[in-house]
Amino acid sequence: MSLSSILSADAIDKAIKDCQAPDSFCPKKFFQICGLTQKSPQDIKKVFGILDNDASGYIEDEELKFFLQRFTPSARVLTDKETKAFLVAADGDSDGRIGAAGRNIFLCVKRTAKNKCDLEGV
């Protein structure tokens, strides 16, 4: 299964283009632009499974670094700063990886309508 079977190719392209510059990636904004905030919990679970490249049940920092490339293979990798901020925001138990409960980062963006990148309180 690919992400384009869940999200539209146009929306993915727009989201990738929005964060082309290094250190411009904002998870909340990315999820809004690509349409993930409008998806069902079942679709969010599928996306989590796709992003969990090694099928370990967790998304580790090395997988997270290549997050954008899971959407579009030619996309850039996240910077160390972006990867760390994303991981901190999504790592509910502070074990250095995003587990099944980390799917909440996708669900949290549904609660906010603003495009501002604010990882505080995610």
From TrEMBL:
<feature type="binding site">
    <location>
        <position position="93"/>
    </location>
    <ligand>
        <name>Ca(2+) 2</name>
    </ligand>
</feature>
<keyword id="KW-0106">Calcium</keyword>
<dbReference type="InterPro" id="IPR018247">
    <property type="entry name" value="EF_Hand_1_Ca_BS"/>
</dbReference>
<feature type="binding site">
    <location>
        <position position="54"/>
    </location>
    <ligand>
        <name>Ca(2+) 1</name>
    </ligand>
</feature>
<feature type="binding site">
    <location>
        <position position="91"/>
    </location>
    <ligand>
        <name>Ca(2+) 2</name>
    </ligand>
</feature>
<feature type="domain" description="EF-hand">
    <location>
        <begin position="39"/>
        <end position="74"/>
    </location>
</feature>
<dbReference type="GO" id="GO:0005737">
    <property type="term" value="C:cytoplasm"/>
</dbReference>
<keyword id="KW-0514">Muscle protein</keyword>
<dbReference type="GO" id="GO:0005509">
    <property type="term" value="F:calcium ion binding"/>
</dbReference>
<feature type="binding site">
    <location>
        <position position="63"/>
    </location>
    <ligand>
        <name>Ca(2+) 1</name>
    </ligand>
</feature>
<comment type="similarity">
    <text>Belongs to the parvalbumin family.</text>
</comment>
<dbReference type="Pfam" id="PF13499">
    <property type="entry name" value="EF-hand_7"/>
</dbReference>
<keyword id="KW-0479">Metal-binding</keyword>
<feature type="binding site">
    <location>
        <position position="95"/>
    </location>
    <ligand>
        <name>Ca(2+) 2</name>
    </ligand>
</feature>
<protein>
    <recommendedName>
        <fullName>Parvalbumin</fullName>
    </recommendedName>
</protein>
<dbReference type="InterPro" id="IPR002048">
    <property type="entry name" value="EF_hand_dom"/>
</dbReference>
<feature type="binding site">
    <location>
        <position position="52"/>
    </location>
    <ligand>
        <name>Ca(2+) 1</name>
    </ligand>
</feature>
<keyword id="KW-0677">Repeat</keyword>
<dbReference type="InterPro" id="IPR008080">
    <property type="entry name" value="Parvalbumin"/>
</dbReference>
<dbReference type="InterPro" id="IPR011992">
    <property type="entry name" value="EF-hand-dom_pair"/>
</dbReference>
<feature type="binding site">
    <location>
        <position position="56"/>
    </location>
    <ligand>
        <name>Ca(2+) 1</name>
    </ligand>
</feature>
<comment type="function">
    <text>In muscle, parvalbumin is thought to be involved in relaxation after contraction. It binds two calcium ions.</text>
</comment>
<feature type="binding site">
    <location>
        <position position="58"/>
    </location>
    <ligand>
        <name>Ca(2+) 1</name>
    </ligand>
</feature>
